[in-house]
Amino acid sequence: DLVFSSNRADGVHNLWRQPADGTGEAERLTVSAVPQFATSVTPDGGHAVYWQAGYNQSVRDLYMVALDRSRRVTPLVQT
């Protein structure tokens, strides 16, 4: 799967994933009012790491989201 950022749903970049061969529908992973941008996937494929703009747009925080059904978000670095 590819994990990517898109503003296709509501104009704000959030995380999505889709099979690498382009088949199937893209699946939304996160819902946030602030932009989020994917950076990597953990070596075991279990989580996507991303940064998120702070509400004042001058802060960047680092998170990861579980790629299982839970979609649990874990903060990694918060400024």
Walk me through the structure.
- It contains no helices and seven strands.
- The chain has strands at residues 2-6, 14-18, 27-28, 36-41, 47-53, 60-66, 73-77.
- A four-stranded antiparallel beta sheet has the order 4-5-6-7, with no helix packed on it. Strands 1-2-3 form a three-stranded antiparallel beta sheet, with no helix packed on it.
- The N and C termini lie far apart (30 Å).
- The model has no long low-confidence stretch (mean pLDDT 92).
Q: What's the total count of β strands?
A: 7
What is the helix tally? 0
Helix content: under 10%
**Coarse structural class:** mainly beta
**Helix-strand sequence:** EEEEEEE
The largest pleated sheet is described as: 4 strands, antiparallel
Order of strands across the main sheet? 4-5-6-7
Shape: globular
Low-confidence stretches: none
Instruction: Calculate the mean pLDDT score and round it.
Output: 92
How large a portion of the residues is in β-strands, by DSSP E? over 45%
The radius of gyration computed from the alpha-carbon positions, rounded to a whole number of angstroms, is 12 Å
Explain the layout of strands and helices.
Layout: E1 2-6, E2 14-18, E3 27-28, E4 36-41, E5 47-53, E6 60-66, E7 73-77
Antiparallel strand pairs: 1-2, 2-3, 4-5, 5-6, 6-7
